Amino acid sequence: MAIERENWTLAVLHDPSAVSEAASDFVSTTVLSKPDAAITFPTGSTPLGMFDVLAARAGRGEIDFSGVEIFCLDEYVGVTAEDPNSLSRWLWNGLLSRIGIRPHQFHPLPVTADGDELEAAAAGYDQMIPRGGLDLAVLGLGPNGHIGYNEPGSSAESRTRVIALTPESRTQASAYWEGAIPIPELAMTMGVGTLLEAKQIVLLVTGFAKAEILRRTVEEPMSADVPASWLRLAGPRLTIVADEAAASRLSIVHSGFQGRVADRGGDTHDGRS
Ligand code: GLP
């Protein structure tokens, strides 16, 4: 099997709420051990439960986010924070404003740079990320295997850049606003290579609709066809946290395994079959 000799971790938990708690634990642990941690979070629907858990923990004083640096994972080109389809706005309203992040701690992508300066601006953003990589990258899995907006075709070495969105991704994004808001054709995204430098990567996957793309992500040979598969190159720095529905097509789950995050009532797999 393709996953032999790989040593990332797969945690399969009962439901999305267990995934949200586990994801929040990664964030808590990171911030407790490094109060000035550099972190990126995904947008989309998958992390919304985690946003609520983190807001509750911050409200109870269990996590102090006052020293962290938040880097944006992806954003539509030309969109401002005032636009309804802004992913920065999504993150700010959904999480950052609720956990006490102040504007100077938040680093939006430079998507309003002039057209001929966009690529240089993206490269400059990549350079702003601390040397040695992010302390934590929390990611979601796109229906076509994208991470951030690294669409199929993205290489493992890709850096923060402008990318043309696939029609499928634009349709997916449009659905968040019930088709009422047009989605730009271009986005800026942290690159796969940029993300692979993170000290810890947590990929969140929930629901039956993601079962097949998660299977391709972890059980097929790594390839640009499924950019999320490149995350396996991170080895022990990668943890995939899935609910049972998303994991329902994984042969490794059905082959029986034991793991390290079993105290949440879930199974884990250490990547060695
Ligand atoms: C979106 C974002 C990703 C996100 C992914 C999954 O379009 N660009 O950052 O992780 O697609 O979204 P969802 O969680 O809604 O399935």
Question: What molecules are bound to this protein?
Answer: 2-amino-2-deoxy-6-O-phosphono-alpha-D-glucopyranose
Could you report the average pLDDT, rounded to the nearest whole number? 91
Counting DSSP H or I runs of 4 or more residues, the number of helices is 8
Termini, distance in Å? Answer: 8 Å
Shape: globular
* Helix-and-strand structural type: alpha/beta
Sequence of strands across the biggest β-sheet: 5-3-2-6-9-10-1-11
**What kind of sheet is the major sheet?**
8 strands, mixed
Short account of what is shown:
Helices cover 28% and strands 16% of the residues.
Report what the structure shows.
The chain has 273 residues and is α/β, with parallel strands linked by helices. Helix 2 links the parallel strand 2 (38-41) and strand 3. The termini are close together. Helix content is 28%, strand content 16%. The chain contains 8 helices and 11 strands. Strands 5-3-2-6-9-10-1-11 form an 8-stranded mixed sheet, covered by helices on one side. The radius of gyration is 17 Å and the shape is globular. Helix 1 packs across helix 2 (48-59). The model is unreliable at 256-266 (pLDDT under 50).
Question: Any chance you could write out the topology, listing elements then pairs?
Answer:
Layout: E1 9-13, H1 16-33, E2 38-41, H2 48-59, E3 69-72, E4 74-76, H3 87-94, E5 106-107, H4 118-128, E6 136-140, E7 161-164, H5 167-176, E8 186-189, H6 192-196, E9 201-205, H7 211-219, E10 238-243, H8 251-254, E11 267-269
Parallel strand pairs: 1-10, 2-3, 2-6, 3-5, 6-9, 9-10
Antiparallel strand pairs: 1-11, 4-8, 7-8
Bound molecules: 2-amino-2-deoxy-6-O-phosphono-alpha-D-glucopyranose.
